[in-house]
UniProtKB/TrEMBL annotation:
This is Formate dehydrogenase subunit gamma. Gene3D superfamilies: Transmembrane di-heme cytochromes, Chain C (1.20.950.20). It is a multi-pass membrane protein. Belongs to the formate dehydrogenase gamma subunit family. Its cofactor is heme. Residues 326-351 are annotated as: Disordered.
Length: 351
């Protein structure tokens, strides 16, 4: 029986099943892969040698030859890192990302898209000037590239290597590594600029608690009060300002290993980077859904810079009351942004 007979719903469920299959297949292969790696990486090492490694008492054959280094090439900390990465970080990523994809699909099927409460008025309010929009889309594009290449580095060999073979896989992993390493620092710098630019809109307010209590309008009647940024947007901002900057900082540690970082520091940076990046990727999927398919009119704010009055009243009523006298007819805009854009946004103080 074909899912196509059920129209878009069947197609959506089929797509979700295929994605989850790709995400959840790696654990079965991972165990065999890691055991095989452990068996072949240090062939011929006896239990006595392992005991020496754990105690740190090994001869020069197992010692790092770099100047002033006292690390063992075979060491217990490396095994601890491998176990944490393979048994905790990798499964966490599958649960977080795969679970979010499933949750979004179920939410869309059960609840559907959030439509505007009234017809559009045709009068527009400036929400984001051209500079912020350009910065947002640059950071968003880099985030997506880094997320995809990072997922490939972590799980790709369990999916693409069996499908396409070693030759294609070698090219794919090399390209992913280069893109991830070189674009990561650029993303970090631009993220800091973006966070600094929109900080003034994201200070917590008392009415944000009510926004969360009502689930952003999903619980009870009507829509909770919100200023320029609602509670959910502020939560995303502070996740980026905390976990996001932790991912950036740990990425710099990994990207530039020539500043005296110890091996233990690099291992912990790798774990922090993985957990933070996977968690942010999962939350970002929700952010993308709400800003595009999930809510009518939301995407317009970051494409044209303007929103309809009805959208503003529905989602950011406190902000609307402050700036409603600045509404202009849609036909009078004449472009994505005008010379007065920056001043107009400045007048739109957060509620």
């Amino acid at each position: 029986m074909s899912l196509c007979r059920y129209g878009p719903l069947g197609g959506l469920l089929l797509a979700v099943m295929l994605v989850l299959t790709a995400l959840l297949a790696p654990p079965a292969l991972a165990q065999a892969e890691t055991e095989r790696e452990a068996a072949t990486a240090v062939a011929g090492v006896s239990p006595d040698v392992w005991r020496q490694v754990r105690s740190g008492e090994v001869d020069a054959n197992f010692r790092d030859t770099r100047f002033d280094s006292n690390y063992n090439l075979i060491n217990a900390s490396g095994e601890r890192w491998r176990q944490l990465r393979n048994r905790w970080v990798s499964p966490f990523g599958l649960i977080a990302v795969g679970g979010m994809i499933l949750a979004i699909a179920l939410f869309y099927v059960i609840v559907g898209r959030k439509e505007l409460s009234e017809p559009r008025t045709g009068r527009k309010l400036l929400r984001w000037p051209l500079f912020v929009r350009s910065l947002h889309w640059t950071v968003a594009t880099l985030f997506i590239v880094l997320a995809l290449t990072g997922l490939n580095l972590l799980y790709g060999k369990f999916v693409f290597r069996p499908l396409f073979g070693d030759a294609f896989w070698a090219w794919m992993i090399s390209a992913s590594k280069l893109a991830h390493n070189y674009l990561g620092p650029l993303f970090g710098i631009l993220l800091v600029v973006l966070l600094a630019r929109v900080l003034r809109h994201n200070w917590p307010k008392r009415h944000d608690l009510e926004w969360f209590r009502q689930g952003g309008g999903l619980v009870g009647k009507g829509h909770p009060d919100a200023g320029f940024a609602n509670g959910g947007e502020k939560l995303w901002f502070w996740l980026l300002a905390t976990a996001g900057l932790a991912v950036v900082a740990s990425g710099f540690v990994l990207d530039f290993p020539n500043y005296g970082q110890s091996r233990d520091t690099m291992q912990w940076a790798n774990l922090i980077h993985g957990v933070g990046a996977l968690g942010l990727t999962a939350v970002a999927l929700g952010h993308i859904y709400i800003g595009t398919l999930g809510s009518e009119g939301s995407l317009e704010a970051m494409t044209t810079g303007y929103v309809d009055e009805t959208w503003a009243k529905d989602h950011h009523n406190l902000w609307y009351e402050e700036v409603k006298d600045q509404a202009v007819p849609e036909e009078a805009i004449g472009g994505d942004s005008r010379p007065g854009d920056e001043r107009s946004e400045t007048a739109s103080r957060p509620g």
